[in-house]
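Q: Structure tokens for this one, please.
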Amino acid sequence: MTTHFESRFDVDYDGELPESVDEAALKRMETVAYVLDESVRVPGIGVRIGVDPLLGAIPVAGDVMSAAFSLYIVVESAYLGVSFTTLLEMLANITIDVAGGSIPYAGTVVDALWKANKRNVELALEDLAEAVETDGSGDEAAGIDIPVETHD
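A: Here is the predicted structure, written as tokens:
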């Protein structure tokens, strides 16, 4: 059994996710990513930026706050059952965002262009959808056979 989820981001998956996935959690993750990465359209050039570059303008504290909000998406993804490899990719995206964003002056541009939170939501959705494709049922334990020896 699967559930259908429509993402606000352009994610390369067919929308089918395991039934056990909490859609409210996905919406919260997308909301955080949207606010941090794409909530404001820059007039004239059509580029979208979020609160992340604005937070990054505050030395040290802004980058720490941005990283904390970004880690929420990773933690929520872990609760949803995203694979360890994907979680590591997500942490790498946050590391690039924080390291690049901490560069004086240029960091604000890095924060505006490197949309780590949007990328992380896309990674989580693709990973969860892949579980449906490989398993067919969306049940993580269904494809695992554990041999059990009985001593009668």
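A few notes: Residues 137-144 have pLDDT under 50 and may be disordered. The first strand starts at residue 2 and ends at 4.
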